[in-house]
Each structure stands twice: as structure tokens, then as C-alpha cells.
Design a protein that fits this description.
The chain is built from nine helices and 18 strands. It has helices at 52-63, 82-88, 100-110, 166-174, 183-186, 191-201, 213-221, 226-238, 240-245; strands at residues 10-11, 37-38, 42-47, 67-70, 76-80, 112-117, 126-130, 133-139, 141-142, 145-148, 156-157, 159-164, 177-179, 211-212, 248-251, 254-257, 263-265, 283-284. The protein has a five-stranded antiparallel β-sheet with strand order 4-5-12-8-18. A four-stranded antiparallel β-sheet has the order 2-3-6-7, covered by helices on one side. Helix 6 packs across helix 7. The longest helix has 13 residues, at 226-238.
């Protein structure tokens, strides 16, 4: 997978307003405990469980999209290959078909977010509330043709039609879009490293002298001090070599951005050919599904 691609990976704002907790195993935030996180770029409030592995999956869904269809209510459905999702999210147990990816999707379906964006970089301010993903449907064909399954000769590969929530769709339409390879970030060993990398790559250029390490830790995760701050510093330094592959350089108490690995353009998600049909078997949130502990529908 190349460092630059035709499909978007993410948007600027979601990497800056603490939408995803800077950890690999995030805590669940109950509705009554959700608090606004204020930043210079806007503010965000999340009820649910969203961490860096969820960000990895969301980036992979967009980056590996095979087709896209905009729905009448403003949502977007994209077609993706679950095998490619596994590769783009780093593979391994946390991204397997049987449990990891499904649990992440479930979290993203049930999490409720609110974002208020300040005008920035030629983008007008906007607000959005809702979900990142509404449902996932397994589909057997793409544009009328079966896709061969390389792991099972003679069988067809099952694809996923992922219905993006109107909140994520609003970010793709109104925020600044970023294009980069999500795999190196997914390979980082610590959540704080992934959050810092995403934040750094959301900027066209670094401040004079680079970012202060402690300040970046605070920007992506809120006020941090004492032993917790020392742990976060060490985690970033442990991941320093892998961060270089992401275009992020950690040098002493400063962080720098290498150029040429990210494209940033005004919002307006590209229209990718291919209408995605809706079929039975959805993995979704509805009034009935909200009462279930685990949605079903993906084999």
C-alpha cells in the first residue's frame, strides 16, 4: 500500500479534538458522564468507548473503500474488504474476523458523539452529532461480480457494506480531508504514539522548533502529570523508530514532522464509482438492537 492513495484516510478535526482516547484499551464513558473536551480547533463530547484501535479501523474502512454511495439522509455507505481491513489495522489478534474487528464495530455503532468545529484553514465552522458507523452488512458481490477468495479456492470473498453515520459523513463533507497510509500508525505499540502521530499528521507544517513533547501529550489526552506523564513520554520514545515510518520524529523533548507523506485537501469526500445495495443481515443499531449486548450478522 502506498503512502498516498486515492481514498481518504481521515479528517483533520477528529485527530485534534480528542474524539478517540489516546489508549489501545479505552474506558467506556456513560452518557451522564460525557464531558465536553475543549481545544483550539473545536470541542467534542463522546459517550461510549472509542480509542486508537477504533481510529485504526475507521481509517482502514475509508482507505480501503472499493465503492461509495451517498444516502438520501446524508449518510454514506462504503464497500470494503474485511481481509484488507485486517491488514490495514495491523493484523494480529486485535483485528481478527471472529472477534476483534466486530467488537470495535459494535463500539463505534453504539458510541454517540457531538463535535463543534471552529472555522480553520479555509474551512467554515460546523457541528455534527450522531454515530461514526450505523451498520455493517455482508454482501456477496461487487458491481455484480463475485470476488475470488484467495484463502479458499473456488469460493467467493464476502465484502462489507459499511454505513457511515451522518456525523462521520459530515466530517468527510465539511472538514479538511487527509490522505495517508494508515498501516504504519496501526503498527505502533502504544495508544499515545498513535494519537500523537495522527495529531502531527493533521498539520501541514510544524510550529517553529517543533512541538513540545509534553504539550502534545496534553493536547491529545488532556492534562497529564506525575508518573502518568513519565509513562507517556517513555512510550513515545519506545516507539520512536516506528514513528519515523509514520513521518513523525521524536528528538529529546521535541516532536517534528517529516514532509511529503500526507495530502490535505478541503472537505468533500470523493465520489467513488459503485452503488452499494442494502440487503438483509445488517449489523446495526436500532431501537430494538440497542437492547442487545452484541449485534450479529457478520460471519
Amino acid at each position: 500500500m502506498s503512502a498516498l492513495a486515492t481514498h481518504p484516510t481521515t479528517t483533520v478535526l477528529q485527530s485534534r479534538v480528542q474524539l478517540f482516547q489516546p489508549v489501545l484499551r479505552p474506558k467506556k464513558i456513560e452518557c451522564g458522564a460525557a464531558r465536553w473536551q475543549e481545544t483550539a480547533w473545536g470541542r467534542c463530547r463522546v459517550a461510549g468507548r472509542l480509542g486508537q484501535r477504533h481510529a485504526c479501523l475507521q481509517n482502514a474502512i475509508l482507505h480501503t473503500a472499493l465503492g461509495q454511495h451517498e444516502e438520501s439522509d446524508g449518510g454514506i455507505t462504503v464497500l470494503t474488504d474485511p481481509y484488507k481491513l485486517r491488514v490495514a489495522t495491523g493484523g494480529g489478534p486485535q483485528a481478527n474476523y471472529g472477534g476483534g474487528i466486530k467488537r470495535l464495530i459494535e463500539d463505534m455503532i453504539f458510541a454517540t458523539i457531538e463535535i463543534v468545529a471552529m472555522p480553520c484553514g479555509g474551512r467554515a465552522g460546523f457541528s455534527a452529532a450522531g454515530h461514526l458507523i450505523d451498520h455493517v452488512v455482508q454482501v456477496p458481490t461487487y458491481m455484480g461480480r463475485e470476488i475470488p477468495d484467495p484463502l479458499h479456492p473456488g469460493a467467493a470473498r464476502r465484502l462489507w457494506a459499511v454505513r457511515l453515520g451522518v456525523c462521520l459523513a459530515a466530517l468527510l463533507k465539511h472538514d479538511l480531508i487527509l490522505y495517508y497510509d494508515p498501516e504504519p500508525i496501526a503498527a505502533l505499540g502504544h495508544g499515545i504514539s498513535q494519537a500523537v502521530a495522527r495529531h502531527v499528521l493533521s498539520h501541514k507544517r510544524e510550529p517553529h522548533g517543533g512541538w513540545k513533547l509534553d504539550r502534545l501529550i496534553e493536547v491529545v489526552g488532556g492534562p497529564t502529570g506525575g508518573q502518568a506523564l513519565r509513562h507517556r513520554r517513555q512510550e513515545l520514545r519506545d516507539d520512536a523508530a516506528a514513528l519515523r515510518a509514520c513521518g513523525v520524529l521524536v528528538r529529546g523533548d521535541r516532536v517534528h514532522k517529516s514532509s511529503g507523506n500526507v495530502q490535505q485537501i478541503p472537505g468533500g469526500v470523493p465520489q467513488i464509482p459503485g452503488i452499494v445495495a442494502q440487503i438483509p443481515g445488517a449489523f446495526s443499531k436500532s431501537p430494538a438492537a440497542a437492547a442487545l449486548s452484541a449485534p450479529s450478522g457478520l460471519g
